[in-house]
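Working notes for the structural subgroup meeting. M.R. asked for a predicted model of this chain before we commit to crystallization trials. I am recording the input and output together here so anyone reviewing the notebook later can reproduce the run.

Input as submitted:
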Amino acid sequence: MSSSPCKIVIPSHKRADRVITGKLLRSPIICVAESQRDEYVRHNPGAEIVCHPDDVVGLIPKRNWMVKHFGDIFMLDDDISKVFINYRSEDDLENSTVDPVFIEKIIYNLYDLAKMLGINLFGFSNLTAPVQYNEFDFLSLRRSITGCSYGMLKNDYLVWNEKMKVKEDMWISCLAKYYDRKVLVDLRYTFVQQKTMVNRGGLAGIRNQDTEDQSILELKKNFGSVIHMKSKGTVIKDGKVLGKKEKIKHNISVKFCF
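Returned structure, recorded in C-alpha cell form:
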C-alpha cells in the first residue's frame, strides 16, 4: 500500500467480472455505484471497493464525485491490459509491461512532478508506436491528456461538464489549458486498452453517434477554434492499422497554440 496522498482509482460500471486493470495494481481501488457493490466485491476479492450514490450516473459525474471524495487522484479505465514503454523498440521483448510495481512507480513519479510544478492535470501518452516517440521531447506541457489514464490535483475550478456523455478528456484538457495554460503529459508510456469502444458495460450503452455529436458541439461552443474536426478514424492496435472505426463517423482533435 502506497503512502502517497494520490489515490490510483479505477472507475467502473457493470464490469464486475472484467476489471482487467486490477491486475496491474498491487492494491486496486475500484469506484462503482452502491447498487453494484456486492457483485464487485465477489469478483474482485483483492480490491478495495469504494461506492458512490446510485444517483451519480455516468462517467463524467463519477469523475467529479471521485475528485471530491479522494482529493488528489489518478484514474485508470477498467479495461487496460498493459503499458507500452515507448522508448523501447518494437523488436524489444520488454517494450511493454504488466508489472504493478513499475506501473505504480511511473504514476507516482508523474504525480510528484505535477505536484512540484503546480500542474493540476497530468497523464500519459496516446502514442501507438515507438516510431512516434521523440526521445528529446518525452515530457509535454502542450498536449491534451488521454482519457484512459490521467490524474488531477484537487482544486476548485477544474470540473467535468456533466452535459456531455463522452469526450470528457478533451473537455478537461481544454479547461486546464484555459485556466492553467499547461497540462503535463509523459510521452514515455502508453496505457493500452483492451476492446475499447466495444466492451460491454462502461460507456458502451450510451456511446453512439448522437452522444458523440452532442459532446463535440458542446466542446466547439465552449472552446471554439482549438477543436478540429477529423474524418472517420482508423483503429490502431499495437502500432498496426486494423481498419476503420465502426461506430463513429467523425472525430475531433485538440490543437493548442501554447
